[in-house]
Each structure stands twice: as C-alpha cells, then as structure tokens.
Amino acid sequence: MTKTDSNPILIAKKAAGEAAAELIQDGMLVGLGTGSTSAFFIEALGKRCRAGLKISAISSSEQSTRQAKHLGIPMKDPHTIDMLDITVDGADEIDHHKNMIKGGGGALLREKLVAQSSKEMVVIIDETKLVDHLGDHPLPVEIATFFYRSTLHRLQEQGYQGTLRLTREKELFVTDNGNYIFDIQYTNPILDPQKEQERLKSIAGVLETGLFFNIAKRVIIGYEDGFVKVRT
C-alpha cells in the first residue's frame, strides 16, 4: 500500500485533483495552481495529455512548471497570454461564500494573477479546508524586500501579529517574484475579507494578500473515502 493509499487526507486531495482533470477539454488554455492538491491535479492532467488530450498551460509557480514539464504538459510563456479558459488551484481555507485564504505554498501573487485572468477558477480541496469563517489558517502577505523591516513595523502598528516565513534552512523564504512573506496570525475570524484586503494593501510595502474573493466558481471537495462533491 502506498503512502497516498493509506493517508485519508492524501486520498481526498487526489480524488479532488483527478476529478478536476476530467473537466479539461481539448483546446483549452489552462492555469495550473500550486500546492499539494494542485500537484495531484497536474499529475492527472499529465496522464490525460499523454493519452492524447491537446491543451496548453501556464502555472502559478516554478515548482508547478517543473512538474508539468516533467509530465509532458505543453507550457506557454505567460508573457504571451492575456486570458485563460480555466484555472484549477487549491485553498488553505474556503468558507461557504467561496472566500479563501491561499498562499500556503508561497505563490499567492502569481496565483491571484492567474485566477483573475481566467474565465473560470475551479478550487480543489480536501474536506478539512471547509470553514465557517476565515482566519484559523495564517494569512500570507507578500511584502517587498526593500526596507521590509519598515513594512513589518507598520503592519505591527496596525495590530497585525505574525512571522516572516522561513525556509527549512531557517533562511528568509523568497517567493518566485523575489519578495518575502509575512504570515499573519488572527485571534478572531476574518468576517469581511474584502475590507481586510483593502486595509492591508493600503500599507506601503504590502504587495498582495492571500485573501481571495469573488473569484471561485466550482469547488471540488475530496473526502477521505475517495468520494467527491462539487459545489457551484
């Protein structure tokens, strides 16, 4: 028995990713997300491409690009694209209104650019990512490296508490865009994600937040028994 076969969460992630791959049709230009659930989608999409599916794709991270190329998914230069047919990506939290926290994998800025440039964003999650209100999971905020301590000071002045993200080697995590990530820890639920987004982005040095709203359409939920549910 493989690790995926025996791990309920991985079973759920894989089920959601494989279900999303079945939505992709010939001729589509596809946005590939980032993270553990997206990796299952990319793996399943690669199998379909090797079986004859004709698509092209761009991805929201160097990690996903490497995986996609390895699996034979034809990749486009994102500088040549202005609109995608569909993007499939995961979420760290998603509520009943399809508001999300994303960015646990460190690709939140690119993920938002790709999602907002798509005719449809399909969100793939395991059942543990469903919440009543956002805020239990830390909120990633991408900040400029220039004068970053000043940005952190202003965030803290506004009452935000959190930590700069580090690598496994205890060095500052750097995004694919060359920025840092400050993970905010909330003590209360985020009741108005749009207002919170506006508040954070009004602080100089904050480039983007992991709050996503008014973007997701279909949500594919994987369960530990391999069952999949689709919310529209």
Key attributes of the depicted protein:
single chain; 232 residues; alpha/beta
Set down the secondary structure blueprint.
Layout: H1 3-6, H2 8-21, E1 29-32, H3 36-50, E2 56-59, H4 62-70, E3 86-89, E4 93-94, E5 100-101, H5 108-116, E6 121-126, E7 139-143, H6 148-157, E8 162-164, E9 180-184, H7 193-201, E10 206-209, E11 211-212, E12 216-222, E13 228-231
Parallel strand pairs: 1-2, 1-3, 3-6, 6-12
Antiparallel strand pairs: 4-5, 5-11, 7-9, 7-10, 8-9, 12-13
Helix pairs in contact: 2-3
Average pLDDT metric: 97
Which structural category do the helix and sheet elements fall into? Answer: alpha/beta
Shape: globular
Sheet with the most strands: spatial strand order: 2-1-3-6-12-13
Percent of residues in helical segments? 25-40%
Largest sheet: 6 strands, mixed
Count of separate DSSP helical elements: 7
Number of strands: 13
Order of helices and strands: HHEHEHEEEHEEHEEHEEEE
Q: Over the alpha carbons, how many angstroms does the gyration radius reach?
A: 18 Å
Describe the overall structure.
- With 232 residues, the chain is of the alpha/beta class.
- Helix content is 30%, strand content 22%.
- The chain contains 7 helices and 13 strands.
- The strands form 3 sheets. Strands 2-1-3-6-12-13 form a 6-stranded mixed sheet, sandwiched between helices. It has a 4-stranded antiparallel sheet with strand order 8-9-7-10, covered by helices on one side. The chain has a 3-stranded antiparallel sheet with strand order 4-5-11, with helices on one face.
- Strand 1, helix 3 and strand 2 form a beta-alpha-beta unit.
- The protein is globular, with a radius of gyration of 18 Å.
- The two termini are 34 Å apart.
- The mean pLDDT is 97.
